[in-house]
Amino acid sequence: MSVQDLRIGVIGVGMMGADHAERVVNRVAGARLVAVADPDTARADQLAASFDGVRSIGDPLALVADPEVDAVIIASPGFVHEEQVLACLEHGKYALCEKPLTMDSESSLRLVEAEAKGGRPLVQVGFMRRFDPEYAQLKAMLDSGQFGRTLLLHNTHRNATVPDTFRSEMIVRDSLVHEVDVARFVFGEEIVEITVLAGTPTGVAAEGVLDPQVSLFRMAGGGLVTSEVFVNCRVGYEVRCEAVAERGTVVAGQNSTGIYSTVADERGGYWGGQVPPDFRVRFARAYDLEVQAWVDASRRGEVVGPTSWDGYAATAVCTAGMESLATGLPVKVDLADRATVLGGAAR
Ligand code: ISE
Question: By three-state DSSP, how is residue 122 classified?
């Protein structure tokens, strides 16, 4: 630890925030966890007490304003992101905000505009797939040109289980949003239209929850993207992406743990591997690289990775996606003009 270490506060210490707090303490160089905040103060107190020199601050906005905090990881629920990111912008603090950036296009756009007005990029959005070594390699291979033009992407996104409070719209806004970012990242262009369809729901989903869902994105350049999101698949966390190009295909996440085993039991001989239980395991390396990149950039006075515009564009697609889920019809994505919004702040 040195005096120049980036002093980090974490807002929201549920599953993801607690994971990031532990990451900052144990696996990230050049950073120091100094504070945590959560409406569940007992949970925040307990987490703070498990590390040396970490304070639990009751009010998240007080954590942002705290002079001892240089930069903030926002891992709270999406409906409080707008005020928390705005507070970071007001105090000139770097923010790594988990997805979704906010709950709807209008509020996400307000954040993009507020950041642009401040004249200094401060926000990175937590789309971690961009930092996953396999997704990064898939992108680099396609960009090399050896496969010709990319025509199609097929995404698979399965969670073992979600709480009953995770409703149909959240499958779009909180889960599919990752595949929205993957499509924009891989193609390097915007999504112009989305269709979200739900068929017969699994019998193990909560009453009224439309799970699984299949979506189709039309990219600005004419490419097509299909995504299956199935959040009660029961097996484990399976996330992969297959790109189909003119002269070949590339798959990321095929065998994500890399473990292959054989076993002899009473049924005979079996072969197989392990499906990771959840995103913290599957994307552990991606999260490490994401947070390290954020820390390094913040210490240099820069922002890397997915921007507030990327967060806004993804929210705009999901806003259209939620409308499509309700009607079953394709919905055009209503996106502001990037050059007009960002002016000289485009990056
Ligand atoms: C969760 O919020 C995530 O971001 C996970 O990556 C995703 O797989 C899950 O479906 C979401 O609920």
Answer: coil
Residue 272 has pLDDT above 70, yes or no: yes
Give the pLDDT of residue 344: 66
Going from the Cα of 174 to the center of ligand 1, the distance in angstroms, rounded, reads 6
From 58, 69, 66, 60, select the one nearest 24 (Cα to Cα).
Answer: 69
pTM flag (> 0.90): yes
Count of residues making up the chain? 347
Q: How far is the CA of 343 from the centre of ligand 1 (A)?
A: 33
Kindly list the distances between the CA atom of residue 28 and the CA atoms of 43, 48, 285, 286, 293, in Å, as whole numbers in the listed order. Answer: 23, 17, 12, 12, 9
Q: Which domains does the chain have, with CATH numbers?
A: 6-129+285-307+339-345 (3.40.50.720), 133-278+313-334 (3.30.360.10)
Q: Separation of 323 CA from ligand 1 center, angstroms? A: 20
Pocket of ligand 1, candidates 238, 279, 283, 290: which has the most ligand atoms within 8 Å of its Cβ, to mutate? 279
Question: What are the tens digits of pLDDT across the range 20-37?
Answer: 999 999 999 999 999 999
Please list every protein residue whose CB sits less than 6 Å from any atom of ligand 1. Answer: 159, 174-175, 178, 231, 279
pLDDT in tens, 188-197: 999 999 999 9
pLDDT of residue 1: 44
> Average pLDDT in the 86-93 region?
98
| DSSP type of residue 93 | -
Q: Is 12 left (phi over 0), alpha (psi -120 to 50) or beta?
A: left
Relative to the CA of 162, which ligand 1 atom is closest? 12
- Distance, CA of 104 to CA of 268 (rounded, Å): 53
Q: How many alpha carbons fall within 13 Å on the CB side of residue 36? A: 32
**β-strands 150-158, 224-230: how paired?**
parallel
Q: What is the mean pLDDT of residues 166-178?
A: 98
